[in-house]
Amino acid sequence: MSTITLPFLQDLLKAEYPDVSIEEYEGAPGSKRGDNYTSMVYRITLKGHRNPDTEEKQPWTGSIIYKCLPESILRREAFKSDELFCNEVAFYNKIWPSLSAFQDQWNLAHPFKAIPKCFLAQNDLVILKDLKELGFVMPDRRQGLTVEQCYFVLKHLSHFHALSLAMKCYNPEGFYELLNIQDGISEVFFLSENEEYYRSYYTEAIQNAIAMVEQELQDCPDREKYLARFKSFCSEDTFFQTMVDMVAPREPLAVICHGDCWTNNLLFRYVNGDIAEMYIVDFQLARYSSPALDLAFLLYLCLDRQQRAEHMTSLLEYYTEELHARVTEMSGEHALDRDTLASMIQEEFRESSRFGLGIALDMYPIMTCDSDEAPNLYQAKESEITPSHECVKPVWTSNAACRKKMADLVIELVDEGLL
Questions:
Q1: Phi/psi of residue 257, each to 5°?
Q2: Does residue 1 form part of some domain?
Q3: Which helix (H) or strand (E) holds 289?
Q4: Cis preceding linkage at 7, omega within 30
Q5: Checking phi first, is residue 417 left (phi over 0); if not, alpha (psi -120 to 50) or beta?
Q6: Closest C-alpha to 344, from 187, 112, 165
Q7: pTM of this structure
Q8: Are strands 118-122 and 125-129 parallel, antiparallel or unpaired?
Q9: Mean pLDDT of the chain
Q10: Which of 216, 336, 352, 354 has the most other CB atoms within 10 Å of its CB?
């Protein structure tokens, strides 16, 4: 946090707190080990006085979130943190201001506002409003989401996606400018040119996943059927290119996706036990692609098999209804009719189910591991002898929860004819 000084903080926050004099600050890790992997997050607590030069002088405290690149050069290179930061900077400096300005033209009764205030975004740091200060909490990554939370997320996600669809209709030139290679968002991971770079990483992740499914299904009479389909999907010759193909945008439904829609990037505020508000954070993996990728990420990673069996159909219908209603508000007669939109969403979601499985290979261990099994981003490892792409390994865990989630997803997709 070498860029942080009192004058820097005072200047940064003067518009938000014009009557405050900041006199002290202190930084501490803003996330637990295992909760993030591509950047370091600090919570900076601030102390000072309101109306410092008057008789009404009062003590004041506040806090902000400071997000920066990992200290380890190897980890930054391995996870392409610099490129991810470029995506997030583009989102806060260009994408969200443009989508928000477009939304404001329509005077919506309930506009989408679930994006945290960003005080500064540049190539090596992002400074955000601290939502914890306002009573927002992040779900436990190992518990996933409740069905109620999932409905709430889908409502906000559909409104976010609708902004892309409506802006493409009314201002296509302005919308596609958001995707330019100079200062727009772009795919970072699943590019054909990255296949060799990530080969050892995904080879190990796949081996771990197959071993867990083999162990979990050892007494299953259809064990070989499930394993054969899973191993075919995980083939070293085709896996990465399959993921590349699935993130490619498909018109006319392609939207700006969040790209990393799981528990650790969702914050909720409760009133009397009910969800009152939520925010979506971390746009490093924002991509232009099918909205079904965000849906697959959310539903296959954050819900368990029983939740999906009982609620998947109604959840997708709810998302479609909200998406259609919001696009219609902003596009009127230009919007797709509800039945056509529903059919397209269903088709793209089925096609994206394998994307959910591909992400799960990497994410299920991250979501279920103990903190001490996760890498410590706040401890720099500067042995620069080993190439970065060989140094950083996927999280390995063989706990019962991870084995069950992985096997359940394989069984689910095979039984539904999706794998």
A1: -95, 155
A2: no
A3: strand 287-289
A4: no
A5: left
A6: 165
A7: 0.92
A8: antiparallel
A9: 90
A10: 352
Token duo for residue 352 = 């994206």
Query: Contact 199/299 with Cβ under 8 angstroms?
Result: no
Note down the domain range covering 36. 6-68
Domain count, the chain: 2
C-alpha dist (Å) from residue 168 to 45, 326, 396: 41, 14, 42
Note whether 338 and 322 are within 8 A (CB).
Answer: no
Cα separation, 175 vs 163, in Å, equals 10
Q: b/e map of 173-201 (b: 16 or more CB within 10 Å)?
A: eebeebbeeeebbebbbbeeebbebbebb
Residue that the structure tokens 């009557």 belong to:
19
Average pLDDT of the residues in 270-289: 96
**CA separation for the pair 236, 213 (Å, rounded):** 17
Give the C-alpha distances (Å, rounded to integers) separating 147 from 12, 133, 159, 267, 311: 39, 26, 19, 15, 8
Q: Which token pair is 319? A: 């998302």
CB-based contacts of 118, cutoff 8 Å, min separation 6: 92, 96, 126, 127, 128, 129
pLDDT digits 0-9 by tens, 364-376: 999 998 877 665 5
Lookup: tokens for 322: 């909200």
Place of tokens 């927002």: 136
Residue 261 in domain: yes
- The three-point CA angle 117-121-127 to 5° equals 55
Query: Locate tokens 């993130």: which residue?
Result: 247
pLDDT (tens digit, 9 = 90+) per residue, 332-389? 666 788 999 999 999 999 999 999 999 999 999 999 988 776 655 555 554 554 554 4
Indicate if 24 and 82 belong to the same structural domain: no
Q: Which one-letter DSSP state was computed for residue 186?
A: -
How far is it, in rounded angstroms, from Cα 378 to Cα 72? 9
Q: Please indicate, yes or no, if residue 326 is contained in any of the structural domains.
A: yes
Measured at the CA of 244, the angle between CA 91 and CA 95, to 5 degrees, comes to 10
Picking from 14, 304, 362, 316, the residue whose alpha carbon sits closest to that of residue 145 is: 304
CATH number assigned to the domain comprising residue 99: 3.90.1200
